Amino acid sequence: MKTLLRRLFSPILNIFEAGDGPYSVKPLSRKILIIIGVLFLGLASIVAYLAFDMGDAGFMIPVVVFCIVSLVTLVVGFLGTDRAVAKIWGNR
Predict the structure, then answer these.
(1) How many structural domains are present in the chain?
(2) Which residues neighbour 21 within 8 Å (Cβ) at sequence distance 6 or greater?
(3) Tell me: the pLDDT tens digits for 15-52?
(4) Which domain holds residue 44?
(5) For an engineered disulfide with 37, which of 22, 60, 71, 74 has Cβ 3.0 to 4.6 Å away?
């Protein structure tokens, strides 16, 4: 299942897993990345719920941005290698 998901999300993962230089990952980096992804997903849900009744389409911009950030962080957090996690955090 994980290989199928890695193949499905390979365009996202290839960006962060590219390179062959040294990197360092702290043990909690992956867990914090997943927590940030869940928080952004919750934020997108709350904004969509609260702004949906207003009838204005302008609320979709922050919802889309928060969903994209959440998708990237959750994909890298759950499926990415240690190099991808280090590249998100900027640890080289």
Answers:
(1) 1
(2) 92
(3) 988 888 888 888 899 999 999 999 999 999 998 888 87
(4) 2-14+23-89
(5) 74
